[in-house]
Design the sequence.
């Protein structure tokens, strides 16, 4: 049949649990729709012909749940258009219309009320396949022109297979552990509610901002901002500034944290467990402007890491047999800053495995390494990480509890100590203003039209993005590259262990006991050698009988 473009029509955006209508197929010789029943008979072309599609991961995972397998996908229009910063969404119609093709939107083909018209869906699927086929060369030419073909072909496209396998494999989650934890958290919520009522002198709806505002600011007389139409602001940052003014504040903050944990993570995760006892998340590969992956339905990347209850939720994440192994890049963004800004002092510290925050503190405070106090190190750590995100003196002052003036001096001292960083920051801003974009080491682009905005705050925000995007984006590129290489090697060695979760700088594996040593060696070697910097990439590997123990 030769090369062809294919587009799968499914009824549900969550492709782990969807009905399949069929597939549109197009090349210059043929143009037709294959209904589900015929796909189920597994036509040979799914395994043999070279295929182009839009969102290969969605197609392959949806079909895999129906025991239909696809191979030989050489082009994914969703990934290509995402890298080129086109209007990439779940629905290909947005991109189609941007490129001048009249394709029906998903909500028109699948109305919430009324019957779907199969003939319209068949026709649209073939038109979508035609769009993919006819724009492929043009998109590949643009990727090559912008030096992004390697990023597309060798990292992002093979990564879609890795992510698809992770999603389909899923992670085992114990419902009973979550339920018991939910009961414990609910007990604490009830107890803390009583303490809040006692401190307030009456019962009220703690979750209601207007009722809470009246209690805090009218009844208890705490400092407040201007009262708006909906009442006083009781936002997190407002309350945090009042934490030393009244004991009720810390209780309210804890109440909020616990109720969010209960609703979002306990109830949310319990409701997301499939009949196989696992959670099957979806990794969105074409969403963030920095290249970072995000996780939805449910989001496994934002389980709280600071509160003890938040951390304990990971106790419910279990291996199918053996261990959960967690591998984490150590301070990768700081290492990238040292490399990209070419800062001799930081490079030397990383190469000699010296505590980077203590080293920074000793340089700024002009003291010996052994004389650095915990507070000096904490301040140095805040500015080390803050500088990557273009932190302001006000932001740093909030983080470490000093005045903005002191924080401004601290940042200036830092930049004078490491002039390479100041030069790097200036060059990033210049490049952004000259080109309208910044790039990662793998040529991933982030365009910054906000730099032309008349509003100073928006322009300043864009300059901060110009500093952060090359570092955060390169970090995302490096772990993606490592994931592709680890997956490939696990496949070659026919390991039964599985990569199951990615949380930015961390990879989580469901590891069979007898494969533990082999897998650990592969993970460490690949992650530390996937890309050569002026400083070593360092990986911390932990393991345990659940995800909590492996952290």
Sequence:
């Amino acid at each position: 049949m030769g090369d062809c473009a294919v587009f799968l029509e499914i009824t549900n955006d969550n492709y782990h649990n969807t009905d399949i209508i069929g597939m549109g197929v197009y090349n210059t010789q043929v143009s037709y729709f294959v209904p589900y029943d015929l796909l189920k008979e597994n036509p040979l072309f799914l395994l043999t012909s070279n295929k182009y599609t839009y969102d290969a991961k969605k197609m392959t995972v949806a079909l895999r749940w129906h025991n239909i397998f696809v191979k030989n996908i050489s082009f994914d229009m969703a990934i290509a258009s995402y890298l080129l910063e086109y209007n990439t969404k779940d629905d290909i119609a947005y991109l189609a219309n941007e490129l001048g093709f009249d394709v029906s939107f998903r909500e028109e083909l699948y109305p919430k009320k009324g019957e779907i018209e199969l003939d319209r869906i068949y026709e649209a699927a073939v038109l979508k396949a035609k769009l993919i086929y006819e724009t492929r060369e043009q998109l590949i030419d643009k990727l090559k022109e912008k030096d992004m073909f390697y990023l597309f072909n060798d990292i992002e496209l093979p990564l879609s297979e890795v992510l698809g396998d992770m999603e389909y494999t899923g992670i085992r989650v114990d419902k009973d552990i979550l339920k018991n934890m939910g009961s414990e958290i609910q007990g604490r919520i009830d107890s803390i509610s009583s303490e809040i009522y006692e401190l307030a002198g009456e019962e009220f709806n703690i979750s209601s901002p207007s009722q809470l505002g009246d209690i805090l600011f009218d009844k208890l007389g705490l400092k407040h901002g201007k009262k708006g139409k909906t009442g006083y602001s009781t936002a997190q940052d407002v309350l945090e500034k009042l934490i030393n003014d009244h004991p009720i504040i810390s209780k309210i903050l804890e109440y909020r944290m616990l109720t969010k944990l209960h609703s979002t993570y306990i109830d949310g995760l319990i409701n997301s467990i499939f009949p196989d006892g696992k959670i099957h998340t979806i990794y969105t590969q074409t969403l963030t402007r920095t290249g970072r992956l995000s996780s939805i339905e449910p989001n496994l990347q934002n389980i709280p890491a600071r509160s003890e209850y938040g951390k304990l939720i990971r106790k419910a994440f279990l291996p199918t047999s053996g261990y959960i192994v967690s591998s984490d890049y150590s301070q990768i963004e700081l290492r990238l800053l040292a490399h990209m800004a070419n800062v001799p002092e930081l490079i030397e510290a990383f190469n000699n495995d010296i505590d980077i925050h203590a080293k920074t503190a000793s340089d700024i405070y002009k003291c010996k390494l052994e004389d650095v106090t915990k507070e000096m190190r904490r301040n140095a750590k805040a500015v080390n990480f803050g500088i990557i995100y273009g932190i302001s003196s006000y932001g740093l002052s909030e983080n470490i509890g000093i005045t903005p003036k002191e924080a401004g001096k601290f940042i200036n001292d830092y930049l004078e100590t490491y002039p390479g960083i100041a030069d790097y920051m200036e060059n990033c801003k210049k490049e952004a203003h000259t080109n309208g974009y910044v790039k990662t080491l793998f040529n991933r682009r982030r365009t910054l039209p906000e730099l032309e905005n008349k509003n100073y705050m928006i322009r300043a925000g864009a300059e901060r993005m110009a500093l952060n995007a090359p570092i955060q984006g390169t970090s995302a590129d490096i772990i993606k590259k490592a994931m592709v290489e680890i997956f490939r090697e696990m496949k070659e060695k026919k390991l039964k262990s599985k990569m199951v979760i990615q949380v930015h700088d961390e990879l989580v594996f469901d590891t069979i006991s007898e494969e533990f040593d082999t897998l650990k060696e592969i993970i460490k070697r690949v992650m530390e050698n996937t890309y050569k910097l002026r400083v070593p990439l360092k990986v911390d590997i932990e393991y345990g009988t659940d995800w909590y123990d492996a952290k």
Q: What stands out?
A: The longest helix spans residues 456-492.
